Amino acid sequence: MTTFAIVDLETTGNSASKGDRIIEIGIVVMNEEGSVVEEFSSLVYPEREIPPFITSLTGIEDEDVLEAPLFSEIAEDIYPLFQNGYIVAHNIEFDLSFLNDELARCGYQPLHNPIIDTVEFSRIMLPTSPTYKLGQLADHLNMGHDRPHRALSDAQVTADLLAYLLKELKSLPERTLVHLLKVESKLKSDLRPFIQLNIDQKRYGQITDPDIDIRHGISVRKQTNLRTTAPINLPSFESWKKDVYEGENGLKSLLDNFENRQGQQEMTTNVHEAFEQDKHAVIEAGAGTGKSVAYLLTASYHALQHDSRVVITTHTTSLQKQLLEDEIPKVERMFPRPIKAVLYKGKSHYISLVHFHYELENSYQDNYDVALTKAMILVWLTTTRTGDVDEIQLPSNGRQFWHKVSAEQSSKSVQLGYVDDSFYQWAQQKALHADLVITNHALFCMDIMKEESILPEYDRVVIDEAHHLESVSSRYFGVRMNYKEIQRHLTQFGEIFHKSVYRQWPLQREFHQYLERGQYAIDEAKEELSHLSRFIYQNVKKQKNLKGKSDVGRIQLVLKPEEMPSFMTTAKEMSYRFLASLQKLSHEMSKIEEQLRGLLSLKEDEGVPILLTRLHTHRELCQTIRSQLIHYFDFVREGEVKWVEIEGEGAANSIYLFSEPFDIARLLNQRLFQVKKSVILTSATLATDHSFTYIRDTLGLIDDERTLEVNIPSPYNYKNQVQLMVPNDFPNVKEDPDAFIEAISEAIYSVAEVTRGRMLVLFTSYDMLRKTYHLLRDFIDPEEFMIFAQGISSGSRDRLKKNFQAFDQAILLGTSSFWEGVDIPGDDLSCLMMVRLPFQPPDQPVQSIRNERMKKEGKNSFMEKSLPHAIIRFKQGFGRLIRSNKDRGIVFICDTRLMEARYGKYFLSSLPDVPVSYKSTRQLINQIEDWL
Question: Which segment of this protein is annotated as the motif DEAH box (predicted)?
Fold first, then answer.
């Protein structure tokens, strides 16, 4: 009978090889039925001090282990527990290295048992879990975990987790298990016996799962049939709306704490009026209005009543998730049939089953990350309804593999005798039958930019988070290229020239010459790209007076061909050399395509059409890179700004090329507002100085007769919930930037002491954020406050937010993306600090060119562009603090311009009515203490 020795260790640090030692050991011995046979637990004297960080994590202090045995004294009790069974741990490499190190010290042979790593096993069996930390997994699976970071408790939870994962493995379809065997040998865990046993049981028990389909040889969750629905008659809008907001079976029947908000009703009416009268609308709805429910009600009513499709586009994935999982299920209860709402994304998000099956059949060359990625995808396919990569937590190099198997690889223009009837096609079908299509600004802008539409046909659209539309559309009407991305494409192209890919077919000798020439062309292209990138990098680096920095700290240089003719000429020539090798590469791909088409007629192998589509996709991509680079270096277009960014401290060829149209308003007017019957722009921040002039001018919404303007204030009681404070004793940032950063750091620490952390500090400059972070780290004890900083602490924005919320006393420093879209409700956030008013630096490329242009046209670029843009950012930042009617907090603004500059009043008048204090830092801190 199989036994498992599940072990967990607490240690003085991360590395046995650097002298760290075990301070506690817990072992649970379990049989394959899941019953615990034996337990062992002991503190261990480590013969060295326990660091404070480990004590704060585990609660184990030096005094606790003074009387504990040495490891050598318990080794003879421990060693037999591992005999003849599996060793299991959550991150086994860590525990096993410490165990074997201690055993060797005591004269025992190292343990070479079969192993199971429950981190890896969890990644495979729970591919959509947001985290794989033991404590968070235990919470997620409702497993009791009384004493996290204590060895026996962690071992007991790991035992429960193992039993759960083995049960999940048993429930997988036979076909999935068979495919898992193909990658099992590359994994850390010895899972083969369990997979094989389950295959045998499935095979001989003839168990089938009614929810599973076999597509392209892979088990996938059965797709629900698209419901065809007959048009329905709804009551008149006014009577229906009255029932929804005031009736006993309306929203109050679904929500315990439902409040009938006047602003929400007003917005529902406004959107309906715009839809019915074919008008556009600009609606600012303050925090707490309930705007998403308001527009969803109207959009759903219109879609069902008229049997037509409404598109809803958002900037953030978190809002899309909220709409689909929280809001739409509520809203659809107000209608006689369910609402058909789908989330629709670009091709690269969806998996192609044809291409994934091809990769499964060629698993012999996989490295560890690819094997793990395949295993995770196999299990995920048995549960996903969407096939969307955003659902799954891929390992670090898993994204590289995903590019090979995404629907991007399936080309429409190549008819190859197979149908890739998988998730992208299903998403298209669902979108065609949907009432509401939810998408993101990126795909929405790509759709209005391209001649060939991506989204299904629609006449009415709600653009939520509409203050982002300008920046996103600028990106999609311009060029964005970078060295790393092109190098990644070239590496991926290289795989098509490996001889091993074609080993099963009888190909002529000249075919191998194409492969060799293709590989040579790739090497040449990589080299030419490196030369070009290094040349650009060095020229940007040696420019004098380069002040421009992007919000992530990259150095920027605006390209002005007339001022730098020799640089532009050389860069253009070098780009041509790169493009020539790209052209050779494309030529060799065409030759291989011709040869493969000969095999296609023989119906030799399903791998042939796969390779043909990949070659076609690669050649299209070569063409795209070519046309973008020619556009970038060849054409000087009126109304377009081009610039280069480099990583100041990064590799000497890490460059980014950008271009954007100067006048996005004209393009949006032509392609969106003149074409669609009704466009609703909404956000909590659209007005500046109580006017929508700025946002309308920026987005090209110039038709006054067809446009409704509505401003709905927030229902929150800001007067009692917020105190706005501005210190009057900060050094002048321009005269003495170092003193200003010191003052910021001291203020952060002093305020944090009063608010017990729970602070979000917003910067406009990444450079200033970095300097402040390092200064804070010098004098703040991590046991007092944990400090997280965007771009310095590892992890995405959401990961940083979660880490911040996980600690009682924490400070989070953020730039650009933290000014909005970050929700930290309740007691997790007590203070929001803004270091500077969020003006775009005047030396940023688009801004500097725009200022020059507006000056020539006799316009005031500061009043007409810079100031309104900063006010909208300011309102977004302010909105991070109060996310419910119970929140209270401080907004601390370290920029005296708010009180002393002529334009400061415009910022203050854009906020709700809040008490403002302008005093010394010490007085303000005393005031915070009293108020909180």
Answer: 464-467
Side-chain half-sphere CA neighbours of 793 within 13 A: 22
Distance between CA atoms of residues 867 and 242, nearest Å? 41
Task: Average the pLDDT over 544-560 and give the result.
Answer: 71
Which residue positions form the known binding site? 285-292
- What six digits make up the tokens of 451? 């001649």
CA distance 72 to 50: 19
Among left, alpha and beta (phi > 0; psi -120 to 50; other), residue 56 is alpha
Give CATH 3.30.420.10 domain extents, the chain: 3-171
Confidence check: pLDDT of 51 > 90: no
pLDDT at residue 757 tops 60: yes
Of the candidates 27, 33, 36, the residue with the CA atom closest to the CA atom of residue 2: 33
Q: How confident is the model at residue 414 (pLDDT cuts 50, 70, 90)?
A: very low
Count Cβ atoms within 10 A of the Cβ of residue 343 and give its class: 0-12 exposed, 13-18 middle, 19 or more buried: buried
Q: How far is CA 219 from CA 170, 179, 204, 383, in A?
A: 15, 10, 18, 10
Alpha-carbon distance 577 to 13, whole Å? Answer: 52
d(CA 783, CA 155): 26
Question: What residue has token string 């007991």?
Answer: 156
- Check residue 326 and report its DSSP letter: I
CATH 1.10.8.60, domain 718-931, yes or no: no
Structure tokens at 277: 């009268």
Q: Which of 86, 92, 99, 85 is nearest to 25 (CA)?
A: 99
Q: For the domain 3-171, what is the CATH code?
A: 3.30.420.10
Full DSSP string of 651-679: -TT-EEEEEEES-HHHHHIIIIITT-SEE
Q: Note whether 288 and 439 are within 8 A (CB).
A: no
For CATH 3.40.50.300, list the domain ranges present in the chain.
Answer: 718-931
Binding site, annotated residues for ATP:
285-292
Under 8 Å CB-to-CB from 225, ≥6 apart: which residues?
none
Mode of pairing for the β-strands spanning 678-683 and 460-463: parallel
Query: pTM (2 decimals)?
Result: 0.86
CA–CA separation, 323 and 341 (whole Å): 10
HEC per residue, 590-645:
HHHHHHHHHHHCCCCCCHHHHHHHHHHHHHHHHHHHHHHHHHHHHCCCCCEEEEEE
